Amino acid sequence: MRKLFLIILVASLYWSCDENSVSDFRYEAESTESHTINLTTQTSLVMHDTNGNITIAGSDTANNLYYNILKKVKSNQSESDAQSHLSDIDITVDETVSNIKIKVEHPTSDDRNYQIDFNIILPNHIYHEIALGNGNITLESITRLALLNLGNGNVTTDLTLEDTCAVSIAVGNGNIDFTIPDNTNANLIATVGNGTISNNGLNFTNQQSLDNQFNGTLGNGAGNIALNIGNGNIGMNKK
Question: 99-125 pLDDT, tens per residue?
Fold first, then answer.
């Protein structure tokens, strides 16, 4: 009887702990807002965020920068707790002569998880410098400069690159899905620590391929493209 009691006690403790782990951050609150930034002499967008998703679309008809943001707070306490801490997410926008700088500060808390998603529309030919800790980056634009750094997540790009382009995409853990026209002029280097590199239709010359590195030239090689992943896969696609 004593042995049976101990088995039941241990089982109930296990189920109790498991139930608590499942219920972590089960309460969620959201808020949305939209903004417009009037562009004058600015030529680049600089963004720094910790957790969330960033989607950027270039437009031939846009004259200014438009962005929607979705703030999310998940709490392990209550829905009202999550709601009351939405204001903890701090977004700073700094307009300089050449840059629009957007920086997000997320509080650190064991009781809550913070996330913010951006959906941005801006003129084509704007330069991009994006740093994100965890999430996904999606970029569709005509540009000459794109510097994307992501800790964990996926980068998806559909770019038309001007001559003398400079593109650098680095991901710690995740995937890169990189799409450009076949008439792009650039030298391309792609490297992975653990993963695969695939070419889907791009016409390279001076091509060299190893297990974890790919080198090749597109057109006259006027620009430079560097794709790097620690753990994950790189797909290079013809637009």
Answer: 999 999 888 888 899 999 999 999 999
The pTM assigned to this predicted structure is 0.88
pLDDT at 144 over 70: yes
- Cβ neighbors of 190 (< 8 A, separation 6 or more) are 197, 213, 214, 226, 227, 228, 234, 236
pLDDT at position 110, please? 85
Asked whether the beta carbons of 132 and 169 are under 8 A apart, the reply is no
β-strand 112-123 against 44-59: which pairing, if any?
parallel
Residue ranges of domains in the chain = 24-123, 137-239
Q: How would you write the chain as a 3-class SS string? A: CHHHHHHHHHHHHHHHHHHHHHHCCCEEEEEEEEEEECCCCCCEEEEEEEEEEEEEEEECCCCCEEEEEEEEEEECCCHHHHHHCHHHCEEEEEECCCEEEEEEECCCCCCEEEEEEEEEEEECCCEEEEEEEEEEEEEEEEEEEEEEEEEEEEEEEEEEEEEEEEEEEEEEEEEEEEEECCCCCEEEEEEEEECCEEEECCCCEEEEECCCEEEEEECCCCEEEEEEEEEEEEEEEEC
The encoded tokens of residue 127 equal: 């330069």
Residue 183 has pLDDT above 50, yes or no: yes
